[in-house]
């Protein structure tokens, strides 16, 4: 139902557009090209992480009183999308969406841990239901989703037992590994944040990041299609190429709206927000799948080389499309919900055509 | 010339407006279906229904009050569209007028033209049609050949339009015709309002794939059109036509409700049939897309409310929604087979109409070209 307040809230404001523009400026560092997957094989880049902490992103959703920026969930979506567009490395989604708000919610006792996390001195991460997460070997705190309440594990000694290997993951510079299951003794139960469980927060954050990746892929492909010439004209003039990119853009814009809408639901305290988040996650995966297919095709042979950054985007997208739920599982969950909901209603009829 | 009293403006408070609309619809929407609008009686019944809507103040909700509208904003219009579809109210035969012909006249018509035409449009005194497509100018609209020759004090029109929705019952046609040199493409086109009941106009109803006569061919043989029926500048009708099309393709808050009803009805059938394990994922995918459609519509209505014009984005919603609707009805056929397509099935017309979504208002291919040209900035083919 469209209400005045909702409709106003949901048209992104001028401030939010500015936020996106300034985030894009902060996240892109020409001297540190995130789009090159030739970085340190295996090592966590502390310097880069401290730099990212300096942008305020990690504590964006933490209250100002606790050292964060105190931004809303929709604002955090705006920032996270730009993070995806810039392919920011490390546990940016895990820290900003999950671990930092969790540390803040735990109160005074955990204030030093929060401060160290927001400064980038310590790393906080999270795993999803598969118990995988980024940079777990260097993490001091790991949030683990669990039955009952989600848990925060102090994980200082994890590094000694965890083997983070490039052989276990898709992309060298995004250091995903399998981590703790929360069964350890140092686990701290977590309250809900904005009424959401850890998996839902991760889902929404990862969907925003994925939309950013898909948007970045599309932007590069558009530029390439304008420049690259064959048969005496830019390939972007060929309808087969134009239509691929147009289709990708359609999915992208609808996914972006879905993610944005779900974030607004969360901000409004809508109890159905987790469903909207699942829908948005599916939409984001659709958008990425479309961009994944069409953008590689648009680049031809050059897109299949290591030197060209395209593969880094494709890999990062594939990594995020598998975080916090696979598309088929999310779709199944939604399908079952739809069947259950409809089962309780009187049988409807399709609408009559207008013409 | 007709005169109308200024109408009472809608209540500013949107939620109060929604309450009023809901209450009115609950008390007034006919219980069963109105008779088939494809018959003379049925069309008459739909005209009467339009008249009731008008009298109750539910026609032209965002149009200026001096032309019979209610002076509301985009959100009033959206709320009404949502509630109307939720209530399962009758098909609106004034839909082309309400959604795009009227708004185009409000933008480009003179004050005199607006006074002359808009109130009759809203009351369904006159049924208005869109006369763009021709046998040799469909996607390539700039190839319009219908000729409007200036004859000193009036235009004389010769040519043919086709696929004219409601042509069989039409009274006025918003026509794109060539006033400049033949073959002049985008230049030398003008928009003229033609009296379809006048001399020299012949209408031949055309049956659609489902057997009903949703549209018609319209022939013009030396039809005299007064100078005062030219809308917008002479020879510059292309811009007017493009504005009209963006209204036609633009966000319609009723559309996601219709899609939801379409999906819910299908899911209801599946539940009744005892479930269908193989389709759970398909349903989840459709549900997610419906949710994105709702979110996008909400965002666009918000942008319009904030004063953003309708532009090329309207092609995005056309592409997304047409595909979603076609996928829903297609799944119905995959699950329930050809019985679904039997003429008596409630899904019959919806199935065919959903499939036309990627053709009318500009085909999907043309929408992709619009997105590529005007949003992505790709080189032209
Ligand atoms: C239910 C319905 C109601 C309608 N109501 C109206 C109405 O009220 N008023 C009105 O004026 N018109 C109406 N139309 C007409 C509609 O706008 C046209 O059918 C449409 O614009 C396509 O034109 P065409 O039928 O001539 O197809 P064509 O233009 O011949 O297209 C045939 C195929 O070729 C493709 N094609 C054409 N050009 C290109 C290109 N440049 N690049 C890629 N592919 C291309 C098309 O996408 C399509 O797939 C209606 C149509 C339908 C189905």
Automatic annotation (TrEMBL), chain A:
InterPro entries: AcylCo_DH-like_C (IPR036250), AcylCo_DH/oxidase_C (IPR009075), AcylCoA_DH/ox_N (IPR013786), AcylCoA_DH/ox_N_sf (IPR037069), AcylCoA_DH/oxidase_NM_dom_sf (IPR009100). Keywords: FAD, Flavoprotein, Oxidoreductase. The keyword Flavoprotein applies. Its cofactor is FAD. Residues 15-109 form the Acyl-CoA dehydrogenase/oxidase N-terminal domain. SUPFAM superfamilies: Acyl-CoA dehydrogenase C-terminal domain-like (SSF47203), Acyl-CoA dehydrogenase NM domain-like (SSF56645). Residues 198-314 form the Acyl-CoA dehydrogenase/oxidase C-terminal domain. Pfam families: Acyl-CoA_dh_1 (PF00441), Acyl-CoA_dh_N (PF02771). Signal peptide: none annotated. The keyword Flavoprotein applies. Belongs to the acyl-CoA dehydrogenase family. This is Acyl-CoA/acyl-ACP dehydrogenase.
């Amino acid at each position: 139902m469209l209400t005045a307040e909702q409709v106003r809230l949901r048209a992104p404001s001028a401030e939010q557009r500015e936020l996106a523009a300034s985030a894009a400026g902060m996240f892109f560092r020409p001297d540190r090209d995130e789009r090159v997957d030739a970085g340190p094989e295996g090592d966590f880049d502390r310097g880069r992480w401290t730099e990212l902490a300096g942008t305020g992103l990690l504590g964006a959703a933490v209250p100002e009183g606790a050292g964060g920026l105190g931004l809303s969930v929709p604002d955090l979506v705006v920032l996270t999308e730009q993070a995806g567009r810039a392919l920011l490395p490390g546990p940016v989604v895990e820290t900003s969406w999950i671990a930092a708000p969790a540390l803040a919610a735990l109160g005074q006792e955990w204030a030093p841990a929060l401060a160290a996390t927001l400064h980038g001195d310590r790393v906080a991460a999270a795993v999803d239901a598969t118990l995988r997460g980024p940079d777990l070997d260097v993490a001091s705190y790991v949030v683990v989703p669990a039955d009952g309440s989600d848990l925060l594990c102090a994980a200082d000694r994890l590094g000694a037992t965890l083997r983070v290997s490039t052989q276990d993951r898709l992309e060298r510079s995004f250091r995903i590994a399998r981590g703790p299951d929360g069964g350890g003794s140092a686990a701290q139960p977590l309250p809900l944040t904005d009424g959401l469980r850890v998996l839902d927060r991760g889902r929404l954050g990862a969907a925003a990041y994925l939309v950013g990746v898909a948007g970045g892929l599309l932007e590069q492909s558009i530029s390439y299609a304008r420049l690259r010439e064959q048969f005496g004209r830019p390939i972007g003039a060929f309808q087969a190429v134009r239509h691929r990119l147009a289709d990708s853009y359609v999915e992208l814009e609808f996914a972006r709206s879905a993610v944005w809408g779900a974030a607004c639901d969360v901000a409004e305290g809508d109890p159905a927000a987790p469903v909207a988040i699942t829908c948005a996650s599916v939409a984001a995966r659709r958008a990425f799948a479309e961009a994944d297919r069409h953008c590689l095709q648009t680049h031809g042979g050059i897109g299949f080389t290591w030197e060209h950054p395209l593969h880094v985007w494709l890999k990062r997208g594939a990594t995020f499309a598998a975080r916090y739920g696979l598309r088929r599982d999310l779709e199944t969950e939604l399908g079952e919900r739809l069947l259950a909901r409809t089962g309780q209603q009187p049988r409807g009829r399709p609408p009559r055509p207008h013409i | 010339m007709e005169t109308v009293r200024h109408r009472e403006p809608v209540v500013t408070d949107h939620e109060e407006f929604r309450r009023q609309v809901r209450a009115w619809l609950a008390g007034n929407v006919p219980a069963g279906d109105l008779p088939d609008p494809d018959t003379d009686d049925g069309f008459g019944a739909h005209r009467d229904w339009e008249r009731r809507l008008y009298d109750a103040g539910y026609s032209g909700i965002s149009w200026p009050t001096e032309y019979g509208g209610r002076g509301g904003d985009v959100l009033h219009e959206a709320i009404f569209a949502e509630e109307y579809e939720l209530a399962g109210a009758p098909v609106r035969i004034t839909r082309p007028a309400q959604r795009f012909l009227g708004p185009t006249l409000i933008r480009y018509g003179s004050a005199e033209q607006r006074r002359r035409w808009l109130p009759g449009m809203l009351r369904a005194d006159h049924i208005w049609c869109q006369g763009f497509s021709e046998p040799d100018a469909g996607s390539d609209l700039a190839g319009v050949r219908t000729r409007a020759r200036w004859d000193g004090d009036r235009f004389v029109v010769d040519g043919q339009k086709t696929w004219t929705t409601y042509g069989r019952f039409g009274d006025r046609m918003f026509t794109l015709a060539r006033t400049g040199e033949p073959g002049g493409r985008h230049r030398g086109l003008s928009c003229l309002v033609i009296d379809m009941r006048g001399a020299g106009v012949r209408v031949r109803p055309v049956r659609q794939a489902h057997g009903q006569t949703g549209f018609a061919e319209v022939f013009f043989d030396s039809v005299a059109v007064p100078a005062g029926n030219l809308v917008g500048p002479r020879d510059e009708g292309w811009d007017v036509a493009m504005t009209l099309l963006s209204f036609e393709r633009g966000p319609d808050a009723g559309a996601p409700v219709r899609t939801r009803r379409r999906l819910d009805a299908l899911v209801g059938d599946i539940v009744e049939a005892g479930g269908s394990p193989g389709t759970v994922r398909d349903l989840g995918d459709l549900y997610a897309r419906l949710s994105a459609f709702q979110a996008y519509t909400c965002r666009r209505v918000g942008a319009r409310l904030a004063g953003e014009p309708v532009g090329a984005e309207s092609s995005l919603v056309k592409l997304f929604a047409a595909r979603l609707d076609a996928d829903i009805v297609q799944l119905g056929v995959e699950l329930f087979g050809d019985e679904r397509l039997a003429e008596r099935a409630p899904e019959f017309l919806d199935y065919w109409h959903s499939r036309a979504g990627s053709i009318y208002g500009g085909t999907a291919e043309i929408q992709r070209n619009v997105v590529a040209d005007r949003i992505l900035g790709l080189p032209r083919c």
